Every structure is written in structure tokens, then in C-alpha cells.
Amino acid sequence: MLEARDLACLRGERVVFAGLSFALAPGAALLLTGANGAGKSSLLRLLAGLIAPAEGLLLWAGEDALTDRAAHARRLRYVGHGDALKPALTARENLDVFARLWGGDPDPALDALGLAALADLPARVLSAGQKRRLGLARLALAPADLWLLDEPTTGLDVASVDRLGALLARHRAAGGMVIAATHLPLPLPDAGELRL
Fold first, then answer.
1. Which residue of 43, 93, 127, 144 has the fewest C-beta atoms within 10 A of its own C-beta?
2. How far apart are CA 26 and CA 7, in angstroms?
3. Burial of 5 (0-12, 13-18, 19+ CB in 10 A)
4. Do residues 29 and 173 touch, judged by C-beta distance below 8 A?
5. pLDDT of 126-162, one tens digit each?
């Protein structure tokens, strides 16, 4: 369903990667690994349509995925380094912003990441791990075919990684795809690996 053909990425005048090709079928997962600065985050941003490839094609079901960037954006959820939270809003209110865009109910999403008891607290009082879980809870709001995750376990304890693993497993069982940049093992059994 998703195919990268000879992708290249430039940051400034520097070639971050070139000649990068892979394909991902429904239910599959791909781990992006490599040293800091190798291009993992840049590749995720390119796959999300946030930056254009310097060369190559990104295909969705055989068609150029970036021809209609709005349609491509609707197919995916991107969780970057930042958690994209409004500090003054409660955990539930933060998710409600995305629920209005994508659909879904904030309460089951909060529950999926173990945040139900914190639903009415402002995001500013949450710990770093709780904020990360709240950012990841957006994934549980409404279906999207492709999840792009940049270091999703940063700041998470073992129980939270297990919750994320269950969420990832449900997504993949429903035919969803996951591409995750990581330096640490992730709960993605049978995932391929692309080392940059």
C-alpha cells in the first residue's frame, strides 16, 4: 500500500539520505534505526508530507501520495518529538481538539493509555511521561491507515510501553501500518528494520 522509491532528502545543502526504497503492506511495521542525525525524523516528516522529497516518489496504492497532500494527511497520524499539547487545557480537552478534526471519543482514547484518572487535569501539571502518553492517545481517537511515530517511548515507563504495545497490536490487526523511529526496542513483533 505504501511504497518509497529512491527517496532523497536534503536539509539545507546536506544530503541526509538518497536512494531510499521500501514497501509496507497493511498490518506491517517498520522500525527506523540509526545514529542521531541519520535522517530518521526527516524521513518521517517526508512520509507525512511535511517536507518534499528532493528525489524519488512516495506512492500510496500505486499513485503519487503527495499529489493531494490533504488526502494523504487524512490517511495518517504523525506523532513527532513534541507532544502538541495546550498546557492550559485538560487532558480530555486536548484530545477533544483532535476528536473534532478526526472523529472519535476522547474518553476511550484516554483509557487506552491509562490516563482516565487524569482526564480533568490541565496538561501543564502532567509529568513528562504522562504528557507523552497524552500525545500518543491521539492515535486511539479515530482510525487512520498509517501511524508515523518519532521516538514514541521517550519518557514512558514499562507499563506505559505495554499499553502502547497493545494499541499498536490492535492497529496492525485491523490492517493499519506503523513506521517508528527509535533507539530502543519497541513492542512491534515481526517489524522490518531500515537502518539509516
1. 127
2. 21
3. middle
4. no
5. 999 999 999 999 999 988 999 999 999 999 999 999 9
